[in-house]
Design the sequence.
């Protein structure tokens, strides 16, 4: 008798819990670490306040595309909105993993600038891949000024690290070899240019003990002293400096990217996802809070007007910084990534 | 009739085998050959590009070395444990098992702390004054080997121990009574009897090593890439068909090597039993 009651109670409880989770929740996938902290502090509360929905933020780091592809294949999309990095965007579009953005829903008054509105995503951040040097590991009184210095293992001895992908590393190699940043993609488009970039990278290969795969790893390597010089994303350097590691960004020759927020194919809450995008990309007040911690500004109307000079200097899109960087050409990579990546993967194994 | 009806009892085991081993293997084969149309390009790529062959050879070599080192260290340890009293044995086995309570990932991270530039070993060396500059131990093949041996050693110890407990010590005493010196009794009576179990342990460690990817990924450099790392890499790149091809190759290689090792083991056992070492 008791057993039957217990069993019935258990079943009732189990049946009830799915009903409870019918509570309106928006699931967002994005980077972890500092990005997650700030998003949870600045954007999520604003969204929840405005719409009355709850949010769930999943830190999927560099695996977002992989997860979305798996979910799309199985027919069960768990994410409503996702961060699409600059390099993932062309691939995600090509594989049909994103829903088109309904701009009549998002931005009926056309407040966002044209360059922020892509077909399958809205620009949510501009960031840079930049080389970072540990000042305490530099030889007396010297500082790296260019990619040529990064490649100069005699003047600046010590282990280095680069991201484990061909994108941007090939451009850096060409710049180190003397190509002007504006001509980089013209040179890279030719076979000789490609060979030249790989040859230059081969020069540095023996001095790279490990190739980083996630932003957190690149910072950890610098912090542990496993490498003295590495590329990383500009936003992670602030926290590294705060934690007491003496590092400095070298903007010269860095690559400027834009990342987006997009809606994966089959997202359960397509319309509400637009509300999230609006909160994330069009609110200058929230964005100002965001860039205080993470220098990844978006195109929220009126943003730069509200910033102080000192703050603006840490932004990748600040004129003095933007002038010495080159704009990463994601279209070039979208077209050529297949063949170059295969060559790069095998070059790594040699 | 009735005599045959016991065969039905095999059904659960067979369906488990089919569901969890054969079906996924077939699926892997399918995925590697249909991308989505029939193609052999992935297998062609594996064969044509020398780098993949290098990785395969390296994986086998590293796994063999790890298995042999584990045996060389594990066998004497198991023997020593076997000689102890029952209570002592329990305590010792318990001590050996404790590291296995932690996941492989945590143990690998622990190795990073030990071997890092500012890690424990370098600090100790610097404190003693043996080295001026920190020695680079991370991201080398040595680090991978050391960590893999440490992780897989308990398995070999336990397997050898299990084989040894079966052996009746009276046989050793009988050999001594018949005039054998201690090391002769060891070599010609004890060793052959424990050989079967030891080889089994070696094969198990080899098999596990072939699939390792966390340790080479975190502790090794480019030159330590193993097949499992390649698979992970390709899956990340969304080249799932190529990854499936790699997975299939790993499966086939491991099976072939296991058959070879067992065969060699049996030959060695017969040699020892006939003529002694």
Sequence:
């Amino acid at each position: 008798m008791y057993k039957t009651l217990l069993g019935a109670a258990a079943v009732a409880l189990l049946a009830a819990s799915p009903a409870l989770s019918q509570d309106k929740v928006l699931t967002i996938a994005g980077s972890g670490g500092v990005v997650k902290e700030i998003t949870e502090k600045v954007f999520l509360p604003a969204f929840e306040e405005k719409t009355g929905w709850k949010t769930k933020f999943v830190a999927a780091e560099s695996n977002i595309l992989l997860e979305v592809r798996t979910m799309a294949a199985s027919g069960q999309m768990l994410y409503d909105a996702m961060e699409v990095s600059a390099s993932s965007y062309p691939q995600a579009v090509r594989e049909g993993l994103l829903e088109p953005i309904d701009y009549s829903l998002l931005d009926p008054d056309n407040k966002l600038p044209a360059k922020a509105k892509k077909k399958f995503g809205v620009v949510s951040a501009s960031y840079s891949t930049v080389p970072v040097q540990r000042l305490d590991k530099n030889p007396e009184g010297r500082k790296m000024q260019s990619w040529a210095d990064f490649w100069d293992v005699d003047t600046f001895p010590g282990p280095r690290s680069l991201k484990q992908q061909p994108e941007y590393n090939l451009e850096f190699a060409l710049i180190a070899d003397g190509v002007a940043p504006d001509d980089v993609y013209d040179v890279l488009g030719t076979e000789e240019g490609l060979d030249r970039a790989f040859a230059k990278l081969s020069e540095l290969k023996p001095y790279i003990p490990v190739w980083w795969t996630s932003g957190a790893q690149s910072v950890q390597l610098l912090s542990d002293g496993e490498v003295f010089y590495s590329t990383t994303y500009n936003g992670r350097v602030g926290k590294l400096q705060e934690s007491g590691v003496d590092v400095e960004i070298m903007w010269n020759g860095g690559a400027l990217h834009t990342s987006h927020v997009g809606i994966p194919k089959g997202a359960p809450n397509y319309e509400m996802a637009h509300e999230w995008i609006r909160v994330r990309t069009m609110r200058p007040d929230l964005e100002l809070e965001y860039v205080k911690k993470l220098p990844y500004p978006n195109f929220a109307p009126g943003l730069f007007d509200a910033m102080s000079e000192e703050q603006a200097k840490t932004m990748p899109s600040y004129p003095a910084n933007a002038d010495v960087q080159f704009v990463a050409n994601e279209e070039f990579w979208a077209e050529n990534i297949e063949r170059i990546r295969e060559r790069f993967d095998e070059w790594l194994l040699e | 009739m009735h005599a045959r009806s016991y065969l039905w009892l095999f059904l659960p085991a067979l369906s488990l085998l089919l569901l969890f081993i054969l079906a996924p293997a077939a699926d892997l084969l399918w995925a590697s050959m249909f991308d989505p149309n029939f193609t052999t390009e992935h297998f062609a790529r594996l064969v044509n590009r020398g780098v993949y062959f290098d990785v395969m050879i390296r994986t086998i070599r590293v796994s063999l070395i790890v298995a042999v080192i584990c045996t060389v260290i594990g066998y004497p340890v198991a023997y020593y444990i076997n000689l102890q009293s029952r209570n002592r044995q329990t305590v010792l086995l318990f001590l050996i098992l404790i590291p296995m309570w932690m996941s492989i990932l945590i143990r690998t991270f622990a190795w990073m702390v030990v071997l890092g530039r500012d890690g424990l070993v370098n600090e100790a060396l610097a404190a003693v004054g043996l080295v001026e500059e920190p020695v680079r131990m991370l991201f080398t093949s040595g680090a991978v080997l050391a960590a893999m041996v440490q992780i897989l050693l308990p398995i070999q110890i336990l397997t050898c121990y299990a084989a040894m407990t079966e052996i009746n010590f009276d046989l050793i005493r009988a050999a001594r009574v018949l005039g054998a010196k201690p090391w002769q009794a060891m070599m010609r009576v004890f060793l052959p009897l424990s050989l079967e179990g030891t080889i089994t342990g070696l094969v198990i460690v080899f098999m596990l090593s072939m699939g390792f990817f966390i340790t080479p990924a975190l502790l090794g450099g480019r030159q330590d890439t193993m097949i499992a790392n390649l698979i992970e890499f390709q899956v990340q790149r969304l080249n799932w068909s190529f990854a499936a091809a790699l997975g299939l190759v790993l499966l086939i290689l491991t099976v072939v090597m296991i058959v070879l090792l067992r065969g060699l083991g049996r030959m060695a056992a017969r040699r020892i039993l006939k003529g002694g070492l």
Notes: Chain A is about 45% helix and 15% strand. Chain A touches chain B at residues 62-63, 65-66, 69, 91, 95, 159, 209-211, 224-226, 341, 345-346, 348-350 (CB under 8 Å). Confidence is low (pLDDT under 50) at residues 17-21 of chain A.
